[in-house]
Each structure stands twice: as C-alpha cells, then as structure tokens.
Amino acid sequence: MPDQTVTIEFFDQEPSTFAGDLLVFLVEEGIPQAAESGMGINRLLAKVQATGDFKGEKDQAFVLYPGLVGTDAAQGVAAKRVLFVGLGKPDEAINSRRERLRLAGGTIAKQAGAVKAKEVLLVPPKEYLLDAVEIGQCLCEGFLLGNYRFDLYKQPKEDDPPVRVERLLLHDGGLAASAVRKGLELGRILAEATCAARDMANQPGNGWTPADFAEYAKKLGKKSRLKCTILDKGDLQKLRMGGILGVNQGSAQPPFLVILEYKTNKKNPTVLLVGKGLTFDSGGISAKPPAGMEDMKYDMCGGAAVLAAMQAIVEIGVPEVNVVALVPATENLSGAAALKPGDIIRHYGGKSSEIINTDAEGRLILADALAYGIETYKPQAVIDVATLTGAVIIGLGHHYTGLLGNNDQWADQLTEAGARVGEPLWRLPLGPEYRKQIDSRIADIKNAGSDRSGGTITAACYLQEFVGETPWVHLDIAGTAWDFTEKTYIPKGPSGIGVRTLVDCLRQWRPIQSADKNQ
Ligand code: BES
Ligand code: ZN
Ligand code: ZN
To answer: For a pLDDT cut of 90, what percent of the chain falls above it?
Structure first.
C-alpha cells in the first residue's frame, strides 16, 4: 500500500513567525476578520477584500506572496505564501457548518498541491459557530481526504517529481488548544482510515484479492487489540456456507470470511458490521456487458469500509459497544465450475435459494455472513454495507446512499450519522408486497425478481430473510462508493464512503428500545 502519511502537528507560536510554504486563514463571507485581532494579517485581508476579488465565498481561494507585496501589513509575515480560503455565509445549520470546514480543508489541499507546498500552517477561524474539537476535526479530515492520491502503479516523472505536503500544522486560532489538538487527532484517524479504504478499492482485481482482505485484517489484528479470525474454504465448507462457496465456484482465488472483533465489556451490546467483499464482479454466467466492467473491481467497497472502520474504531475507541466486523470475500467469475442460473444453493442455517441471475451474487455472500454473524455473536444491532444494486443509482443517483432496514430507531441513528459526516443516506421502504417478487416455486427464496422493478428493495428483502428480528440496516453504496458527489475532499474514483458514517454512528450509539421495532 502507498505510504502517504502527512505529519500532523500543533503549532503554538505566532502564525506570523511560520516560515513554511503556505500560511492559511479561513474567512467567512461578510466577516472582515481572519485571525485574532492585532495581527497584521487582518489588515492584509482588509486590503484584499477592498479589491472585491475575495469575499469569503464557499471554496473561494486567494493566494498572495507577502515578500512580493511590500505593504506594511505584509511585513512581519515570514511564510512564503498566504492563502485565504472562503467558508461561505455563516448562517446555516450545524451539519452544513461541519461540511463547510471539510470543504475548506479540501480546497487547502488542492491549493497546496498547485503551489507544491510541503509545509502548511492552518489557522482555524476564531468566531466560527462550532465546537473547537469539531473545528479541528473537520479541517484536518477535509485536508487529508482532499490530499489523497493513488499513484502506486504510475512511474514518477523524472523531470517533474510529485511534491506532496509533508507537514500539516494547526494553530489554535484563539480556541482552546487542547480541544483543537483532540480534533486534529480525530480527523487524522478518520481520514487515514477512509484513505485506507480508498487504497483497497483503487487496487485492481489482480492487486486486491480475497486473500488480501484476510492479510489486511490479520495485520490489523497484530498491531491493535482486535481479534482476527480467518475462515478459509475448508471452514466455509464445514459451516455449509453455500452462498460464499457458490459464488466462488467460478474463481481460481479461494474465498475467505474475515472476522475482526473489538471488545470493550461483556456487558456492552454488540454491533455487527458486514461488508460485501466482492473483489471482482464479472456477473458470472449471467455476464455483465463489457462497457464499464472494469469498475467492478470496486465491488469490494463495502468490505473495505467495514475493515477501515474497525481500524479507526480501535484508535478512537467506542467504549459503549463491542463491535464485530465480517467480510465475506470472493470473486464472481464464470467458468466450467461456475454457478448457473437455475442452480439451487443452501445458505448457512439451511435456507435454500434458487439462482435466477448469477450477477445477483452480493446478497448470496452477505446472507451467509449475516446469518452466521447473528447466530454466533448475538448482536443487538446489525449494519451491512454493500455495492449491491445498479437500481439504487437509477433511484438516487450518486448523491445519496440507499438505506433500508427493519427498525426505525436504528435507521434514524444511521441517517443522523451520515448527515453529520457529509455522507447522506435516504431510506427506501421494505414490505411483503416487494418480498413476494422473490418467492421461488422450488426453493425457499430466489435471488432475483422476474422483473427489475424495485431492484434495491427486493435485494434488501432477500437480506432481511437472514436477519430475523435483530435491528438491521442495509446501506446500498453502489451509487456512492465511487463517482460520489464531486467535492473538494472527494476525489474521482473511490470515495471511501461508509467509514466515517459507521464510526460516527458507533461513537454516538444509543441503545435500541425493542418496543419500537417496526416493519
Ligand atoms: N455489483 C453489482 C451492483 C452494481 C452495479 C454496483 C453497478 C455498482 C454499479 C451487483 O452484484 C449486481 O450486479 N446486481 C444486479 C442485480 C440484478 C441481477 C438482480 C444489478 O444491479 O443489476
Ligand atoms: Zn453482480
Ligand atoms: Zn456485485
């Protein structure tokens, strides 16, 4: 994996003494002040604002070179460049205030890249209406997410070697220094985990196989206090996991069920996370059309999100819950031994399934993992994350993740977490009228409806068969795992979606009252 670590430090001297490449101030639209009063920077900003060229609009950026300006105001500023970044209008809701800081962080990363800055000092806005921890967190998160590159497979150009930001420094900007420091650390952990998920996703099918999921989890287990268990093909056979084994039949790569356990206290409830780890989805015998098939290396983004979330959870700590993560991992290929339409498989626990379409394979591997995870770990709540259906892109496009589930409280907790972190979720219904579409004449259930109507919902109905009464939420990230809403901190390619939502949701965990179960 590429090592892109940026050193992040706290800077406790006067920002004007910073002699690095880029000194950054954030400015809200209509507010004539960037830093603590008394700094020459504010006089400089006043001059810039007077030109009318920089108002502090969202994502607006203005670079100036103090050494070249020669005004009184610029004197005493040691940095090579000063960058003013706009935060937009101040009068919005709290989630939008968080998002505006992440966007500003992404803008700073872009500007730093454009001037090949290696050392950046960021001064947070003093009068910004958000808790100081969150100010530090959102800025750091946005910056590191915006600074992401994946160039493992590119040869560096000799005449133009890539320059990367090596040190990000954060000043307290007049806020409580310990709070800003704490936020900085949270932001770093969350962004690094999200970038780890992006790295896994960017790897091609021949660079990230089911065995790589197993290796990654083992390494994570070794260097942290996560317990790692890897179930291999023999174990899956003993456990009769016909879904994972069936999908794997056409592949030369052995399948795995990867398990990571984060334990706090036996008395605490357990939350089960399950991520689809399909390292390449050709559709199998029900082959996908060739155009765009290369994107199906991203069919493991759910698994990546779940493993990366565990990486962040162990660093940040979620003291009120135990967390178990399961990633069923295989390829879906065609071949002499591959699963065929019409075949019947038997899932873990005994339920039989008639295969109508071998391209509806995600639900087959998730079904085994859900049934096994629920029986083994008896979780109080379950979340699965999967690039499950093309239909969710038809319904919601690339801007909202589809959410379906059997419990309003749990669905609300996820929706709130997604809104807080800038990964919006939209709930779709479930119900017997949809479930009927996957009734099979000769097996307990079939893996696809006879028409494509309500495809995201019928896929979730399939999964629902394997969760029983346990509060469960399914996130269909097929539209958002890559090509997600263009933002300064979301690159083209995989977004790493889900990692920050999962961690945030677990940090804000509220016990689910069983009386309110629905659907
Ligand atoms: N991995 C795909 C879903 C997908 C499609 C993700 C496009 C991202 C972009 C999944 O395995 C699949 O092929 N689903 C089928 C189900 C159908 C055959 C019932 C689909 O959505 O077409
Ligand atoms: Zn498929
Ligand atoms: Zn798939």
So the answer is: 85
- Which member of 89, 149, 240, 288 is catalytic? 288
Which has the closest alpha carbon to 226: 256, 263, 252, 258?
A: 263
What is the chain's mean pLDDT, rounded? 94
All residues at 6 or more sequence positions from 410 whose CB lies less than 8 Å from its CB, including other chains: 381, 471, 472, 473, 512
User: Does any ligand 1 atom lie closer than 6 A to the CB of residue 361?
Assistant: yes
Per-residue pLDDT reduced to its tens digit, 82-93: 999 999 988 779
| Cα-Cα-Cα-Cα dihedral sign, residues 279, 283, 284, 290 | negative
The CB of 74 under 6 Å from ligand 1? The reply is: no
Phi then psi for 331, rounded to 5 degrees? -95, 165
Distance CA 509, CA 461 (A): 25
pLDDT tens for each residue of 437-467: 999 999 999 999 989 999 999 999 999 999 9
Q: How do residues 297-349 score in pLDDT, each as one tens digit?
A: 999 999 999 999 999 999 999 999 999 999 999 999 999 999 999 999 999 99
Please say whether the beta carbons of 163 and 116 come within 8 A: yes
- 374 and 468 in contact (C-beta within 8 Å)? yes
Instruction: Count CB-CB contacts under 10 A for residue 319.
Output: 9
Residue 166 confidence class, pLDDT cut points 50, 70, 90: very high
Question: What one-character DSSP code corresponds to residue 392?
Answer: H
3-state SS, residue 371: helix
Q: How far is CA 276 from the centre of its chain?
A: 14
> Residue 41 is encoded by which pair of tokens?
């920077």
Cα dihedral 373, 374, 376, 379 sign:
positive
Which pLDDT tens digit goes with each residue over 98-156?
999 999 999 999 999 999 999 999 998 878 989 999 999 999 999 999 999 999 999 88
Q: Give yes or no for residue 42 CB within 6 A of ligand 1.
A: no
Our answer to whether residue 149 is catalytic in this structure is no
* Rounded Cα–Cα distance for residues 66 and 64 (Å): 6
Alpha carbon distance 379, 279 (integer Å): 27
d(CA 393, CA 481): 11
CB 286 within 8 A of CB 359: yes
Confidence of residue 38 (pLDDT cuts 50, 70, 90): low
| CA atoms of 388 and 391, how far apart (whole Å) | 9
Q: Retrieve residue 429's tokens.
A: 């219904």
81 counts as catalytic: no
Cβ contact 236:230 at 8 Å: no
Q: What whole-number distance in Å separates Cα of residue 379 and Cα of residue 470?
A: 8
Closest ligand to residue 283's CA: 2
pLDDT confidence of residue 5: 81
